[in-house]
C-alpha cells in the first residue's frame, strides 16, 4: 500500500496546506509531537486540514502517545493516517534510564482502521546485520503478529535514544541513500531526512525509494514553508519518482 508519493510535513497554516496540494503533493503531515517547532493543537490542525482538497492524505505525526489519544486527535482533525516516530521497542526491553518516547509493535493494531507509517532508521553500515533494515523488519513482523502491520516504512536520519521527541524529525540530516538501496524490507519505503529541491532527484535515484517526505528542506523557518522551494521540490520529486501504472 503506497499511501503517498510526495508528502510535505510540518504544515502549520491553511495557506501552506493549499499550496502544497496545488503544487502536486498527495499528502501533508500535521505534527503533534510536543517540543517540535511545528507542533499544532488538534483545533489548529483541524483548520489546516480543512484547507486540503479531497484526495490528499492527512497524516498525523506522533511519538510515544497512547493509541486512544491519537484516535481522539484523529477524530477532531480528520486524519487519514498516523505516522509514528517513537523508539521501536520499549525501553525496558533494551535497558537504559529516562523517559524515551516509544511506539511498540502493538500500536498498529490499536490504531486500526487508520493505516500506520512507521519512521525507522538504517542500522550501522559496520553492524552485525547485513540488512540495515533488519530491525525495522522485525518491528513490522511483530506488529503483524500483534494485529496489524504498518502500511509504509519512512526511513529518516538516525537519532540517539536521548534525542527529545520534538527533535526527532525535520532536522535536515540526511540518510545514507546508497545504504538504503542495498537494504530490503517487505513494505513500501519512503525517504526523509535532509531532502531539498537540489538533491531530491539524486536521492530517489540512488536510494530507490518510492516516496519522499520533506519538512525543513522547503522552509523559510521551522513551520513556515517557502513557496518557491515547495514548488521546485515537488516538481523535482514528481519527475524522479515512479508513477503508478
Describe the protein in words.
There is one protein chain. With 245 residues, the chain is α/β, with parallel strands linked by helices. It contains 9 helices and 10 strands. The chain has helices at 14-23, 42-50, 67-77, 91-94, 107-110, 134-146, 177-182, 200-207, 227-240, and strands at residues 6-8, 27-31, 57-62, 81-84, 116-120, 152-155, 189-191, 211-214, 219-221, 224-225. It is globular and about 45 Å long. The two termini are 14 Å apart. The relative contact order is 0.17.
Tell me the span between the first and last alpha carbons: 14 Å
Number of strands: 10
Helical proportion, percent range = 25-40%
- Rg over CA atoms, rounded to whole Å, is 17 Å
- Name the structural class: alpha/beta
- Model regions low in confidence, pLDDT < 50 over at least 5 residues: 160-170
The biggest sheet amounts to: 8 strands, parallel, barrel
Strand content: 15-25%
Strand order of the largest sheet: 1-2-3-4-5-6-7-8
Report mean pLDDT, rounded to a whole number. 90
Main attributes of the structure:
245 residues; alpha/beta; 8-stranded parallel β-barrel; two-stranded antiparallel sheet; 9 helices; globular
